Amino acid sequence: MRHGKKVQHLGRKTAHRSSMLANMSCSLIEHKRINTTLTKAKALKQFIEPIITKSKLDTTHNRRLAFSSLRDKNAVAELFREIAIKVGDRPGGYTRVIKLGNRLGDNASMAMIELVDFNDLYNTEAKTKKKSRRRGGNKIKTNTSKTVDANEENMIEKKSTSKEAPNEESSPSESNSGKDQKED
Question: pTM for the complete prediction?
């Protein structure tokens, strides 16, 4: 039974496991998605989520904490520059694990782990924000049709007044517009 065992050991000693997770985290930060086994992906998710949370607040202390876990200066720089800006408003859940099936050689269950905000296929926030559902949409359509009808009536009145009183003094722009309308 697995009572109270929080860490997934992955069949490795502590030093090997922490090095492996640090390397996988750097690869994930650099490439935004990696393929690995399902258990390693789940362990990596637990490892990297707190680091990404710390990167949202760019302080020297948080950079040092991230560097102590990742052990790569370039990965820490990219984490604080690019990834922290994109996930700044997200309260958590920065990574997604997608199951890919079993590996042919040893039948190990494979998975792809990726950063959520960097996937264009699943990230459809811009499309959903533009569309807004309103109730009583018929009222809006009738109001717009009334304004269109009022505009058409104004145009008809202007045409009829220009035809009825051609001798009245008017500005040159109005007389030109009246001639253009008669030619059409």
Answer: 0.66
